[in-house]
UniProtKB/TrEMBL annotation:
Lineage: unclassified sequences, metagenomes, organismal metagenomes
Listed name of the protein: Uncharacterized protein
């Protein structure tokens, strides 16, 4: 059981290092798409796991950053949009 846990942690760390290396070298949208495809990174959109390939570059950037920082979690696009809309609404009410 302990060996399985250690093996899992080693695999996660190796994956994080690979993603980080590619991410630091990424300069174009295609580079981000390559990372998303290679590591099969998904997001939650409309309460389903989806490929983020069709999303904007800024969102892809956030998904990859999350894969590095929180490797066991999945980026929730719906929640992200909801939070951003509420932030925009609060800015508009403060500064009409």
């Amino acid at each position: 059981m302990v060996d399985d846990e250690e093996q899992r942690e080693a695999t996660i760390q190796k994956r994080i290092l690979e993603i980080t290396k590619l991410f630091q070298q990424a300069t174009k949208k295609d580079d981000l798409d390559f990372i998303l495809r290679r590591f099969n990174l998904k997001c939650i959109k409309n309460n389903k796991k989806r490929s983020p390939i069709g999303l904007k570059m800024a969102i892809k950037y956030k998904i990859i950053k999350m894969a590095i920082q929180e490797p066991d979690d999945i980026f929730d696009y719906d929640y992200f949009c909801k939070v951003n809309q509420s932030k925009e609404a609060s800015v508009h009410t403060i500064n009409p």
